[in-house]
Amino acid sequence: MFMDMKPPRKPSRLSRRALPWTAVVSLCAAILAWELVSRFSGLPAFILPAPERVAVRFWQALADGNLLLHTAVTLSEVLLGLLSGTVAAVALGYAIAKSRLFERLVAPYLVASQAIPIVAIAPLLVIWFGPGMFSKVLICALIVFFPVLVNTVVGVRAVPQPLHDLMRSLRATRGQIIRRLEVPAALPVLLGGLRIGATLSVIGAVVGELVGADQGLGFLVNTARGLYDTAMVFVAVLTLILLALALYGVVALMEKKLLSWQEVHE
Amino acid sequence: MSDPILTVRGLSVTFPDNNGGLEALDAASFAVRPQEFVCVLGPSGSGKSTLLRILAGLLAPTSGSFTFAGGVPRIGMVFQQSNLMPWRTALENITLPLELQGMEGNTARIKAQEMIELVGLQGFESNWPRDLSGGMAQRVAIARALVHDPDILLLDEPFGSLDALTRERMWSELSRIWQARRKTVLMVTHSIGEALFLADRVLVLTQRPGRIKLDLAVDLPRPRADEMRYTAHFGKLARKLKEAIE
Ligand SMILES: Nc1ncnc2c1ncn2[C@@H]1O[C@H](COP(=O)(O)OP(=O)(O)OP(=O)(O)O)[C@@H](O)[C@H]1O
Ligand SMILES: [Mg+2]
Question: What is the count of structural domains for chain A?
Fold first, then answer.
């Protein structure tokens, strides 16, 4: 079942290089459009606050320490979930990649588990594990798990047989084969999975916090909404976007550093 | 005459398939003396790669056995493709066998650097394999096979993917390395010219299932040069091999 799955394609070099200035231009355009709509559409501020209102709210929330606190909470959930989900997925994925029997035993459950929308069972997890950080970490881990698992299986299975032969002809131990062959060979695909996982983990944390939490950016969205403090909702959402972009950037940076040996496709 | 370093007795391999199994190698027996350069010649599918894979411990024979004098040997293997790790530089590819033996990093790099010089790749130490030409990559592979001072070199059509000019340059280099290092070599090839240029002895395998049909001593003087190919004796040996293959 995993054999026919393709790892995600890397974004082309062109789109990466073109990012900075085009991004700035389109960002300015978006803010301008936002400004124009909020000014001339006659929508009340609790529906669409003007950009400067959001900016002011942002500084306030930053100054009173609220924003940093909730961001830190969400970030911890995202990272812990990403870490535990990745560790579990890599371990299980490796076992699946190495053993057809094991694959046949667990694959049906894994596929079936993918039919469960995590978003829908998030309330259940919060009921079972409480409104604290743990339930959010769990949701993140669950949501990160599958894409990383698939990429691990694909990556480990794609290790060229001739390189395995080389290692065996040199009488490499199991540990040496993992460390010196399988990890570096599977790393590109694995990091691709991690990149998807990082973004998904942010979604997982917010979903969990929206369902029930007393801290975090999702919680901030919920309370601000209750107070018709729409500017604050905007602040929280924008912070989430920044968080996701930053995580994506960290993984992309890791790829750039670790995979400099790779052919650059144009 | 010295005792053999490798003795092969009645080696047979049958691969399982849907009608009774595919016989790839049939009762191959031969011996290789220390520092001997032996070429294995045979038509496609005659079990040459299978033979090397068995000797390298990558495949278990269906029957028969082989022994290396002095127990489990250190093997240096060169595959048909250069088979380098793309995430390691040329030098790091060469240090791999040493790392697997637990040699300390600096010592390993010094030894690998010696090999770089032996195969004439100075200046390309930190190239990624993707930035090496086919011939250079194959030379890295040869350096990697030699660096841990193996007891025997197993070469599976190491120059198969090279153009004629590069290939002949590689023959001279391999010849030179072999004479400098005094290794035992077992090399698979498709080319009669290659076998006669390099080998002390040529084994010819039959069509599948491979059986040893001819064991020919190559008594051409060394060092061998290009002109040797136009001598009558070379022609006689080449004809013998050609007839055995057909
Ligand atoms: N792992 C395998 N499973 C099944 N059959 C195999 C396997 N490896 C080789 N064979 C078969 O065994 C026969 C001998 O293969 P081998 O690769 O040893 O031939 P060869 O002499 O090296 O050929 P070539 O010159 O084309 O490289 C072939 O018919 C091949 O299809
Ligand atoms: Mg072959």
Answer: 1
